[in-house]
């Protein structure tokens, strides 16, 4: 197993989705193997297509040799439609937002630093002011990890009837080192 610093990071955009779609689905199947009975988890391919269909879609996939380790992807929020603003009164003046939709690492490479490397590589050099993401509230260690990267919880939401309740987390860009 390779430690995160040795991963081969490959960047992809909306145009690459046909090439990388199955890789994302395969990583997800491994990462969520014990939860594949959950209807929300089973809908992951819809989310890949939804986010990948966004012209600003950006994805970073990490490889250990030829083996995909994990990925992070997201897209810029539409100007004026930063849905997280409802949680802050007043909202910050800086509002250009990159929505981090997924960060996923296969079990074999967890606790190697891969998640931080993938996440930060996704956001490095972005021209947005903020990053937003959601974390299942039943995973406080994951929320604490994001807090250690500069995020803060600003609210909670359940965006779909079958989804978990999520902590909405916001960070200023660029992230601290």
TrEMBL record:
Coiled coil: none annotated. Residues 7-174 form the N-acetyltransferase domain. The keyword Transferase applies. This is GNAT family N-acetyltransferase. It comes from the Bacteria. Keywords: Transferase. InterPro entries: Acyl_CoA_acyltransferase, GNAT_dom. PROSITE patterns: GNAT. GO terms for molecular function: acyltransferase activity, transferring groups other than amino-acyl groups.
């Amino acid at each position: 197993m390779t430690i995160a610093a040795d991963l081969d990071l490959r960047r992809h955009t909306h145009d690459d989705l046909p090439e990388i779609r199955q890789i994302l689905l395969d990583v997800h199947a491994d990462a969520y193997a014990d939860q594949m009975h959950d209807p929300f988890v089973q809908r992951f391919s819809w989310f890949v297509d939804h986010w990948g269909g966004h012209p600003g879609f950006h994805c970073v996939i990490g490889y250990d040799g030829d083996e995909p380790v994990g990925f992070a992807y997201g897209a810029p929020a539409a100007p004026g439609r930063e849905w997280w603003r409802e949680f802050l009164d007043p909202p910050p003046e800086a509002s250009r937002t990159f929505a981090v939709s997924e960060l996923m690492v296969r079990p074999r490479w967890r606790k190697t630093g891969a998640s931080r490397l993938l996440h930060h590589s996704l956001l490095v050099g972005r021209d947005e002011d903020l990053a937003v993401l959601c974390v299942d509230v039943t995973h406080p260690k994951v929320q604490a990890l994001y807090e250690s990267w500069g995020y803060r919880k600003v609210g909670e939401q359940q965006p779909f009837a079958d989804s978990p309740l999520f902590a909405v987390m916001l960070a200023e860009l660029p992230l601290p080192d």
